[in-house]
DNA sequence: AATTTTATATGATTAATGTCAGCTTTTTTA
DNA sequence: TAAAAAAGCTGACATTAATCATATAAAATT
């Protein structure tokens, strides 16, 4: 059982409000897990009974629609919490969480979160701000899907991926998504996504080497994205 | 200055957790307002500095996109609160709120909400649940826009309007939206919306008399909506 | 009441994007 | 390493839904 006081990623989530005693108590009740790439943390409809704190790795939160397409609602990276919404709503998960890379996560049981919620106003305020931030992002995402073209959304998504997850030493996007997953973020068909990537490539906006995507002209991409 | 203790709609929002003292204090600091149909409560980008509690009437929360279309993100009815998200995030409004009917609202200043938040755990938990509910709805709405056809979404929206706002004695939808507004909810062009309403009419699923829409076969509509 | 403006309606056309099919490359598994 | 499976790519085509044009009806204004 590792220490929560030393945990760096804590600073990035609502947990930053916890005091020493609370952290000791947290360390005692949390459990650590390794989630392999492609494995689910939980699936839509499951009862989660706690929240996950991501120590390393990235995961996608998505919803499978009746036509078999996986719409990615958001990506989560180290330092963020997963499952707050359904914990607070006291409902089963609305989205499926699947690891995009090998992940390390800590599971904090619901009872512990609720007791923190009661005892620590700053913690609950932080949690609330996170959920409110998610709500704003999701509203904006919704408007973007309904008002922008696929090309604009793809450009927007590529910029988002670079800004949020950074790049490798060779300049390529650090996060590796399949074309299908990228399409799921953009909300388009896989073929359309591939075709537009290929167009961007021909226009010199990006470079493609297998799964690696390198953004060459981010200003032009930003202009396309609006 | 009217009484908050006697206010019925309080029961429908996070405010139901307030005790007698808190309600007296609330009554003393809140202000009541009449908003005429078509008038804005606030616009995107404005600082709201408090929350509105809707006593009567309905309003739309929408976002104007660069191409001039108004995407309606959600509708709000009596008993609900408006502006929690930006209050908690401490940000300007992300959406514009416009009255669809004459409305009565009470404005509660930010300082009062924050002090309730600190003093009353149940209140903050309620507020949090509301925001989480909004987040789930918005996520689902987003997936619906990206995965369903316009026809399916229109059917879905009509069912939602009947279930949420009820019908008049003659069976027509109680809430009256322009075709443009309905299109804004469905996320489609006004013409497409009109055309599909006309199709539904010909198929005997609904009846149109001017602005009045009457749902005739809600089962078939539900089947179309999925 | 007449006129202007706005909303609703419908047809024709175009543009955007999804679907299907076939092929190549990459990855996985035996 | 060979074979099989999955992912990526491209072209052809179909479909959906947006746009444009125009007509009618309703509402607002003079």
From TrEMBL, chains A, B:
It holds the Pfam family HTH_Crp_2. The keyword Transcription applies. It comes from Flavobacterium cellulosilyticum. SUPFAM superfamilies: cAMP-binding domain-like, Winged helix' DNA-binding domain. GO terms for molecular function: DNA binding; DNA-binding transcription factor activity. This is Crp/Fnr family transcriptional regulator. Keywords: DNA-binding, Transcription, Transcription regulation. The keyword Iron does not apply. GO terms for cellular component: cytosol. InterPro entries: cNMP-bd_dom, cNMP-bd_dom_sf, Env_Response_Regulators, HTH_CRP, RmlC-like_jellyroll, WH-like_DNA-bd_sf, WH_DNA-bd_sf. Residues 14-117 form the Cyclic nucleotide-binding domain. Residues 148-219 form the HTH crp-type domain.
């Amino acid at each position: 059982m590792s220490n929560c006081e030393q945990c760096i990623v804590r600073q990035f989530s609502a947990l930053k409000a916890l005091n020493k005693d609370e952290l000791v108590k947290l360390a005692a009740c949390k459990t650590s897990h390794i989630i392999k790439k492609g494995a689910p943390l939980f699936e839509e409809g499951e009862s989660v009974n706690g929240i996950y704190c991501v120590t390393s790795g990235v995961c996608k939160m998505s919803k499978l629609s009746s036509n078999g397409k996986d719409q990615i609602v958001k990506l989560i990276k180290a330092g963020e919490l997963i499952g707050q919404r359904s914990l607070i709503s006291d409902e089963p998960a609305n989205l499926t969480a699947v690891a995009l890379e090998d992940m390390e996560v800590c599971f904090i049981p619901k009872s512990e979160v609720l007791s923190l919620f009661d005892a620590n106003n700053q913690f609950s305020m932080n949690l609330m701000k996170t959920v409110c931030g998610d709500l704003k992002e999701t509203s904006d995402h919704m408007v973007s899907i309904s008002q922008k073209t696929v090309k604009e959304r793809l450009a927007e998504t590529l910029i988002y991926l670079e800004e949020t997850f950074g790049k490798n030493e060779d300049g390529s996007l650090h996060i590796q998504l399949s074309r299908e997953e990228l399409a799921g973020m953009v909300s388009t068909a896989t073929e359309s996504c591939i075709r537009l990537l290929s167009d961007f490539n021909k226009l010199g906006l990006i470079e493609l080497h297998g799964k690696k995507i390198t953004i060459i002209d981010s200003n032009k991409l930003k202009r396309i994205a609006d």
